[in-house]
Amino acid sequence: MNDKIMKGMDIMRVSQLLNPTLREVPAEAEIISHKLMLRAGLIRKSASGLYTYLPLGLRVLRKIESIVREEMDAKGGQEVLMPIMQPAELWKESGRWDVYGAELFRLKDRHNREFCLGPTHEEIITDLVRGEIRSYKQLPVLLYQIQNKYRDERRPRFGLMRGREFVMKDLYSFDRDEAGLHENYVKMYDAYCRIFSRCGLTYRPVEADPGAIGGTGGSHEFMVLADSGENSVVYCSGCDYAANMEKSECRPQATEDTAPEGQRALVPTPGVKSIDDLSKFLAVPKSSLVKSLLYQGDEKTFLVLIRGDRTLNEIKLNNALGGFISLQLAAPELVENILGCGPGSVGPVGVPEGLMVIADAEVPLMKRAVCGANKAEHHYVDAIPGQDFRIDQVHDLRMVEPGEECLKCGAPLKEARGIEVGQVFKLGTKYSKALGANYLDENGVEKSCVMGCYGVGVSRTIAAAIEQNHDDNGIIWPMPIAPYHCIIVTASTKDALVVETADKLYQELKNLGVEVVLDDRDERAGVKFKDADLVGYPLRVTLGSKTLANGQVELRERKTGETHLVQVADLAQQVKEIIDKALLC
Ligand code: ATP
Ligand code: MG
């Protein structure tokens, strides 16, 4: 091979790059990150929730992985790689085979043995540790992997945001006791802050509900703040309190009602269908109404009461009830069977003895209430909680509302939207007890390992980064996760000086460690600029005949749109300095 060909080969030329950009917005994409990832030629869909990463998309993924890996290693994490396919036996041992439900991809081998595709790896890692760890001297141990996870999501959507196959970093900590777990939890919390800062993202750690993964200790989610986020978070305007809306505790507030003077009365309410209708029909505020909802948790039923102006928080409800695999509103037929009326007429007065009545903490504070009468088109007015109807349990069951007082400091709470990119959990001994991951302490006493688990949605982080960093023209990558730092655009491919200088600058930049591509396509400059903006390269160097005749090239920053002319001789060094500064944080 001659020299020229050799030289040409190590230039990453856009003419050779598999980067199919699209002008049209693909119909299937709803949110901006999904649209832009398709348009910028970063991913392509294979099937619902399954994507191929094209070269530029994969580079972003690998960069985030490297940041995650560095931060895990810095905290003493040891990288392993576990099988994606997991035997059902382990899931049966932990009790999750039945609990995980339809999200678990299940399969059988040729011998009819059952397996699943790992949605998470607590079982496998705990099985590993029970076989390998014997003594307190081997603890703590932090093991992690970066790998595809599989979840048959009810609604796979938004591209990489909610896939059925996605890349997760999962680390599991094993400690002797709660104090050790806490120490590692703090370490991981800190590492997560560093990861998302290093990715150049604006994020917030929030208190979270541990959800299906279980465990009784604490949990935090890391939310990238973006209006399109699926999660609602509340944060305090006065202190550092922040929580997922689902988790945020509320202070019960009494209404200003006065106690009724007369007796509870049954009133006809023809045509009234909703809480709004009822409030208008009776001319009472919604805060004087009690919503009564019949819920079914596995085989059991419960009557749930909450003030008419509040929203029920099903996660709090399920936690209060002890955690059902499936908790849902009872079907109309069941309501009819138990209470003899339709769901819209349900109320707490005179319900069967065996039906547990669970109320939000504000209901007992009501002096008088309007509630369903278990009779079509009728309601009770002036019903007194605790007197006219029974309440068996009282819990905080409602959604917090922006403007309410922070329980920590009293300042008003605010609301923001967030994308969950990571979560940390204190698992305790849930899995080590179930699977028998024990160690011998100094006195030879056998104890259960105390576990934590810590996940980063690596692929979702790409989508979150785009949601947070884009404009009408395309993606604006934060430097640390950009597929390449810089693109060189030849505005004229006919001009030999332009072409030669572009190759030369490419080599100079590459020698300085700058990640660079060269748009050598025989396209109009405007087309190349559009693509460069769409893909979101942080820096663009443009070589045109006119400026180059004066020994100058144009340097443009994607984020600010700032453009200035730079001497060819100074270009590489200037680019390098801008990148170094951006990577320093
Ligand atoms: P979600 O509530 O969004 O379904 P999760 O709480 O079930 O997520 P975890 O079990 O906490 O998810 O998983 C760790 C991380 O993996 C999440 O914080 C998220 O960033 C990422 N993740 C979870 N499910 C998906 C998915 N379907 N597609 C892409 N990333 C995901
Ligand atoms: Mg989570």
Question: Quick summary of this structure?
Answer:
The chain has about 575 residues and is of the alpha+beta class. It has three domains: about 5-15 and about 485-585, Rossmann fold; about 30-250 and about 415-465, BirA Bifunctional Protein, domain 2; about 265-310 and about 315-395, YbaK protein.
Observed structural traits:
585 residues, alpha+beta, Rossmann fold, BirA Bifunctional Protein, domain 2, YbaK protein, 3 domains, 9-stranded mixed beta sheet, 5-stranded mixed beta sheet, 31 strands, disordered N terminus, binds adenosine-5'-triphosphate, binds magnesium ion
CATH topology name of the largest domain: BirA Bifunctional Protein, domain 2
Q: For this structure, what is the CATH homologous superfamily of the largest domain?
A: Bira Bifunctional Protein, Domain 2
Query: Strand fraction band?
Result: 25-35%
* Estimated structural class: alpha+beta
Overall pLDDT level? 94
Q: Shape from CA axes?
A: globular
Proper CATH architecture of the largest domain:
2-Layer Sandwich
**Highest CATH level, the class of the largest domain:** Alpha Beta
- How does the major sheet shape up? 9 strands, mixed
Heterogens: adenosine-5'-triphosphate, magnesium ion
Q: Radius of gyration over alpha carbons?
A: 30 Å
How many discrete domains?
Answer: 3
Q: Please give the alpha-carbon distance between the first and last residues.
A: 43 Å
Catalogue the unreliable spans.
1-8
Report the strand count: 31
**Percent helix:** 25-40%
Number of helices: 16
